[in-house]
Amino acid sequence: MSVEQVQVQRADFDQVMVPNYAPAAFIPVRGEGSRVWDQSGRELIDFAGGIAVNSLGHAHPALVKALTEQANQIWHVSNVFTNEPALRLAHKLVDATFAERVFLANSGAEANEAAFKLARRYANDVYGAEKFEIIAATNSFHGRTLFTVTVGGQPKYSDGFGPKIEGVTHVPFNDLAAMKAAISDKTCAVVLEPIQGEGGILPADQAYLQGVRELCDAHNALLVFDEVQSGMGRSGELFAYMNYGVTPDILTSAKSLGGGFPIGAMLTTTEIAAHLAVGVHGTTYGGNPLACAVAGAVVDVINTPEVLNGVKAKHERFRTRLEAIAAKYGIFTEVRGLGLLIGAALSDAWKGKARDVLNAAEKECVMVLQAGPDVVRFAPSLVIPDADIDEGLDRFERAVAKLTQA
């Protein structure tokens, strides 16, 4: 009997997988649009979006078409060669953003690893070896490699792995005075999420991002925006920096870029990119034709006025209903975020219980996320139908009602 035919259940996870995850008790097996079915045939509405990854829901026809067409052509050639889907995708990203050059990787962590290495390399080449310090925000998240987890401002993810990479400082998010006190001529880069994701769905203040841009310019430091979670239409603009009118020197993207297929991208200028000369950095799978074909289709669908304006309208639909739920049940104090990256902050009585909300929602057949222990996160498909939003929020309200009355 082949492996594919063996019946597997959730219990198998605990027998054969490394125990670094604690997945839900059910296994999704099929998805269509914003609905998912588990092994028992139960149907759930998906407000989790694979943690802001399934930007066009499940099995979107344009993505299925792009993947299957490419699957019948060429899968992998390595970076000894280039390939057509990678070049097409790079052109689309350059045409749509501030960027002039693209580096393709397989994940957000890889895109950030490349961004941080590039920032240090650029500073080393242009200003000398002393300029290597990186400033990031407390409670930020930038990936799980040793470099990216050190830049991320959450000790629970970075502690316990031996000595950390030197020269990384963390300051409070949205605190311009703290940034001004920390930055110096030894700073090579400031790394920020325009909307803190894992840190609780906290959008940056306009004046803060503008002020940080000015500080970076004054100290010859690069401004790096991690848009792994906030990018690719999630905020209602193609990238969140466009909401602010503050342009970074380097931008990273992943998650929604592939619509579910693993891909990451680092975007930058020609001048900065020149410091990743031949052999300086690389990735075996980066620029994979399958991933790039899918991502190209994702860009084509999302980067339209219809979809981006739709994201803004759907945000209001979510916000209005979630604020009504907050008023009725007293479980949330604030609904925040941009576009379809929304956080509902738990009230004092419910602090630390985001996981309980998730579990209650699942029992009512709706999938939601958390952003830390105190925030319930919603990151659905950017093209989720209004009927699915309404039905999903009906289910979510039933979950909240049962939870608060228990």
Automatic annotation (TrEMBL):
- Its primary localisation, in coarse terms, equals cytoplasm
Subunit and interaction comment:
Homodimer.
Which PANTHER family does the record cross-reference, listed alphabetically? Answer: AMINOTRANSFERASE CLASS III, SUCCINYLORNITHINE TRANSAMINASE
Catalysed reaction equations from the record: N(2)-acetyl-L-ornithine + 2-oxoglutarate = N-acetyl-L-glutamate 5-semialdehyde + L-glutamate
Binding of pyridoxal 5'-phosphate, residues: 108-109, 141, 226-229, 284
- May I have one GO cellular component term? cytoplasm
Question: SUPFAM superfamilies given for it?
Answer: PLP-dependent transferases
Q: Which CDD domains would you find in this protein's record?
A: OAT_like
Q: Which controlled-vocabulary keywords does the entry list? A: Amino-acid biosynthesis, Aminotransferase, Arginine biosynthesis, Cytoplasm, Pyridoxal phosphate, Transferase
Q: Biological process GO annotation list?
A: L-arginine biosynthetic process
Assigned EC number: 2.6.1.11
- Which cofactors does this protein require? pyridoxal 5'-phosphate
The enzyme class is transferase
The protein's GO terms of the molecular function aspect are: identical protein binding; N2-acetyl-L-ornithine:2-oxoglutarate 5-aminotransferase activity; pyridoxal phosphate binding
Per the record, residues carrying N6-(pyridoxal phosphate)lysine are 255
Q: Which family, according to the similarity comment?
A: Belongs to the class-III pyridoxal-phosphate-dependent aminotransferase family. ArgD subfamily.
The UniProt note on the cofactor reads as follows: Binds 1 pyridoxal phosphate per subunit.
Cell compartments where the protein resides: Cytoplasm
The species this protein belongs to is Pseudomonas turukhanskensis
Query: From what superkingdom does this record's organism come?
Result: Bacteria
Q: Which Pfam families match?
A: Aminotran_3
Anything further noted?
Answer: May also have succinyldiaminopimelate aminotransferase activity, thus carrying out the corresponding step in lysine biosynthesis.
Pathway participation: Amino-acid biosynthesis; L-arginine biosynthesis; N(2)-acetyl-L-ornithine from L-glutamate: step 4/4
What HAMAP family does its record include?
Answer: ArgD_aminotrans_3
Name recorded for this polypeptide: Acetylornithine aminotransferase
Specify which residues bind N(2)-acetyl-L-ornithine according to the UniProt entry for this protein.
Answer: 144, 283
